[in-house]
Amino acid sequence: MPDILPIKEDSSTNPLCSYGITKLTIEKYMSLFNYLYGLDYTIVRPSNPYGSRQNPFGIQGAISVFLAKVIGNEMIEIWGDGEVVRDYIFIDDLADGIYKAAFTNTTSRIFNLGSGEGISLNSILTAIRNTTNSEIKFTYAQKRLFDVPTIFLDITRAKEELGWLPTTTLETGISKTHSFISQLFRKMDICDD
User: Fold this and answer.
1) What is this structure's pTM?
2) For an engineered disulfide with 114, which of 36, 47, 119, 179 has Cβ 3.0 to 4.6 Å away?
């Protein structure tokens, strides 16, 4: 659970799930190898990326998965009441941030890359409905114990030291992702059009 929001690169770390623990362990090993062997490294901590070419048929990547379900006229299942808040970043903005982190000379080793804003799942559904002009079928399921209620990133360091700023609005990112997934459905001949 974050102590303070938005989360800064030097905020306390206490992950509640194995995914977060694994990521933090890798960061600690990078620091150790820097200390022992002089390994130069840069770590990017992306928020929740979405966009073209993300697997829309999996269970991760809320925006892409939700869009695929909307296009396929399927039910969206949301764990909890839909008020879980996350930070979403369009893949093109993330790729730009990773490039700048890799090639900018700076003393910082860790950079948050996100939108810097928290958005609830219910707000994502509303944005999808407004952007795609589609009806959405959804249901709420029991919340998961390891879901932290609110997480979004402070991207000040990336702005100041990398000269990086995400430029894709949520609506534009959803529209581009919707277009890609719609084309994918047409190629697979699995949509109702």
Assistant:
1) 0.90
2) 47
19 is catalytic: yes
How many whole angstroms from its chain centre is CA 32? Answer: 27
What is the enclosing helix (H) or strand (E) of 86? strand 85-86
Assign 3-state DSSP to the chain and report helix, strand, coil percentages, each to 5. Answer: 40, 15, 40
Residues 33-85 have pLDDT tens digits of: 999 999 999 999 999 999 999 999 988 899 999 999 999 999 999 999 999 99
- Domain locations in the chain as residue ranges: 18-188
Catalytic residue among 19, 29, 41, 99: 19
Give the residue-averaged pLDDT of 130-158.
Answer: 92
Gyration radius from the chain CA atoms: 18
The residue written with tokens 């022992």 in the block is: 36
pLDDT, mean of residues 15-38: 92
In what helix (H) or strand (E) does residue 88 lie, and over which residues does it extend?
strand 88-90
CA 18, 21, 27, 32 torsion-angle sign: negative
- Residues forming a β-bridge with 48: 88
Top CATH class, 18-188: alpha beta
Residue 101 C-alpha from the chain's centroid? 18
How many angstroms separate the CA atoms of 59 and 82, rounded? 16
